[in-house]
Amino acid sequence: MGPPNVTAAVHGTELPPKTTERSDAPDVELTGYRKWLSDNLMLLVTLSGVLLGVILGLSLRPLHLDGDSIMLISYPGELFMRVLKLMILPLVISSLIAGSASLNAKMNGKIALRTLIYFASTSLFNAALGIALVLLIHPGNPDLHNADDRATDRKAVKLLDSLLDLGRNIFPDNLFQASIQQAHTVYLPKPSVLRSGFNETTLNDTAVALIHGVQGVEALHQHQRLEVMEEVTLVRDVQYRSGTNTLGIVFFCLVFGTFLGTIGQKGQVVVDFFAAVFEVIMKMVTCVMWMTPIGISSVIAGKILSVDNLGLVMAQLVWFIITVAIGVLLYQLLVMQALYFVFVRRNPFKFYKGLIEPMLTAFATASTAAALPITFRCMNEKLRMDPRITRFVLPIGCNINMDGTALFIAVASIFIAQMSGMVLGFGELLTVLLTSTAASMSSASVPSAALVLLLVVLTAIDAPVQDVTLLFAVDWFVDRIRTTNNMLGDCYAAAVVEELSRKELMALDAAAVNYQDLNASTPNGHGLLEGQTELEATSKSVLSDAVVVDMSAVMNNVNHSNRRV
């Protein structure tokens, strides 16, 4: 039996469940189908929305509805998505600040390091899995290639620009701008003074051409063509596009929360504020989830109705879809479960079952960020994960952990190379592996963001970039498949990091108990020495509003007690 639940900040906040406590006994014990229905009601609601959307979309396709009708069918789903996205920013800010403030700076560093290592390792593994599957199945068929597309211009996209944009977004120069815009590199034509209008030089050249007749006119046209060639020289330019810069907000909140936890009682009112905001957002999420049957069914039905020639597209790219689906299922059902069992030593499929509801939401919305509120609710309430870990890991994973995206980019890049008749050697495959991993970790958690990053990998292996347009026809479906991997990867990462950090979390709990006992010893919170009055203790004490805990000593006590048990 462990000590009572307390926060690591130990300054009078509400006591969250410890990492060692996973369940609470209900006041009224339900039995039979009533208990099953009570435990899985929200799951049934979400599943009914998905099935209703598929049935509605397929049944209405023979009617060949016009654009206005499809828009009206999709409108409830659009409102549902907008409400979910509305809660993302306050949820990320409140969870990160409250979570990082409840841990000391050293603990934050350890958790962040473990989280990043896990994310990078799983993304690299998924990219390798995608390469192995696409080489084994070989879904690329040159007959699918449209020869007319070869004449289109190739747009250069460099991995360096993607990585530099990642750094610019992690360190925003304006926090308010980061909430609505994100930085990205574009290539613009180099400005030229030669074509600035009908200036004096242009007029003189025209006059000379008129004097010398036809030869002069041809010389003028050649001169103008040379000027146009000078204008197409592209230069880099950093601009801002619409979209929340979640990476920058995550970085600021982590640093802010870490330092907030170091100032003791003076910052407790701020911690309480963000903890209250988090609780309010979660209550709002619970209310919104009752809109799931209408919202999710509207999103899926509208997407099915908006795709032209659904059967033809599926038939042409069926092997590409199968390759991605096999990779996603292999990782979900084998690799994830093996990782959970190795580190946590518990039944992994029970944990997987508890995540079906947010997984269906991620599938329907094709966005890890949109499913984040539901993921929080299931992880904290249903699976009883330590909120100090989930508030830290889930918002970070929502932005940089893209396991499914890494697998998709690796498969799609080699798929396009196979369609073009390219033979990739070991060096090109290694380039695909590394660039897919790096590109996936810089991907935005929005629908179809991977198609933009796919250009980075195709440019690196000198594959035809314009062939990406072939995948737009099926990306609406493949995007939903790989998004489930992204969402589940965040949850399994939280479970693994919680288990690896269990001793440190127990040490923080023990330190909190010692501090509460110290506060209970005297009215002012300081213990009295023999022969010392309370006034003397107050005047000589150096413990004002904080407590200094010897973490090594506490850890030794925890390890000693574990050995005795």
Q: Please summarize the sheet with the most strands.
A: 2 strands, antiparallel
Taken in chain order, the helices and strands follow as HHHHHHHEHEHHHHHHHHHHHHHHHH
Unreliable residue runs? 1-16, 18-26, 146-156, 194-212, 226-230, 522-552
Overall form? globular
Note the gap between the termini: 11 Å
- Structural class, please? mainly alpha
Helix content: 55-70%
Mean pLDDT: 75
Number of strands: 2
Instruction: Give the spatial strand order of the biggest sheet.
Output: 1-2
* C-alpha Rg (nearest Å): 29 Å
- Beta-strand percent range: under 5%
Number of helices: 24
Describe this protein's structure.
This protein is 68% helix and 3% strand. With 565 residues, the protein is mainly α. The chain has a two-stranded antiparallel sheet. It contains 24 helices and two strands. The termini are close together.
Provide a brief overview of the structure.
This protein is mostly helical and 565 residues long. It has 24 helices and two strands.
Topology:
Elements: H1 32-39, H2 41-60, H3 67-86, H4 88-101, H5 105-137, H6 159-170, H7 175-178, E1 181-189, H8 200-231, E2 234-242, H9 246-260, H10 268-288, H11 292-306, H12 310-316, H13 318-344, H14 348-353, H15 356-365, H16 372-382, H17 387-400, H18 403-419, H19 426-441, H20 449-460, H21 472-500, H22 502-521, H23 534-540, H24 551-564
Antiparallel strand pairs: 1-2
Helix pairs in contact: 2-11, 2-15, 3-11, 4-9, 4-10, 4-17, 5-13, 5-17, 5-18, 5-19, 5-21, 6-9, 9-17, 10-16, 13-18, 13-21, 15-16, 15-21, 16-17, 17-21, 18-19, 18-20, 18-21, 19-20, 22-24
